[in-house]
Write a sequence for this structure.
């Protein structure tokens, strides 16, 4: 079974691409949503987060206090590195367990969607990487439409914290162009055929 990663900058359309693969029957692991689940449900991680960031890291309901954690790490790169160093390994373990369960079903390949595929080191668990590419202006316009609470400066700040598009493209095994000029479905179907053949 092949393990394929999908990454791309904010607004590139990773989630759209993953939905297309899911329609084709491909199991998709969404690292961002699973990270939220792991933070709320993994006792080892919970203990480590409280030790690192205090009891305020969790709300009374038991859910992670995202607002508090975001305030702690947003302007402090060391604290962000600390948070990621606790969360990413546990999400990696969760992915490994999920991948093994998928392998037992006999599927030819699985996908892992993650914005921070390289930064988290999780690309090392994967056989091949797809980068979803769109020009920055297109990505910004999409995010502004999708997240009306964000300002153009907010989006530029997020883009500034992500790995450059040039580096993502240079490290990718495959590039899907989601730039409003190339049709996306034929590109996805072509890769699906390739992956099913091994």
């Amino acid at each position: 079974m092949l393990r394929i990663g999908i990454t791309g900058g904010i607004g590139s359309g990773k989630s759209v691409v993953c939905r297309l693969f899911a329609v084709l029957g491909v199991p998709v692991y969404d690292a961002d949503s699973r990270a939220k689940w792991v933070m709320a449900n993994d006792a080892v991680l919970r203990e480590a987060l409280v030790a690192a960031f205090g009891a305020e890291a969790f709300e009374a309901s038991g859910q992670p206090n995202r607002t508090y954690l975001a305030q702690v790490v947003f302007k402090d790169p060391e604290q962000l590195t600390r948070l990621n160093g606790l969360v990413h390994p546990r999400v990696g373990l969760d992915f490994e367990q999920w991948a093994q369960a998928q392998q037992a079903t006999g599927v030819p390949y699985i996908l892992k969607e993650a914005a921070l595929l390289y930064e988290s080191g999780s690309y090392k668990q994967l056989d091949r990487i797809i980068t979803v590419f769109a020009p920055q202006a297109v990505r910004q316009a999409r995010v502004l439409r999708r997240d009306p609470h964000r300002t153009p400066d907010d989006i530029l700040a997020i883009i500034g914290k992500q790995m450059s598009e040039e580096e993502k493209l240079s490290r990718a095994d495959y590039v899907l162009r989601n730039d409003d000029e190339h049709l996306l479905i034929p590109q996805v179907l072509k890769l699906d055929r390739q992956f099913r053949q091994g």
About this structure: The CA atoms of residues 145 and 158 lie 16 Å apart.
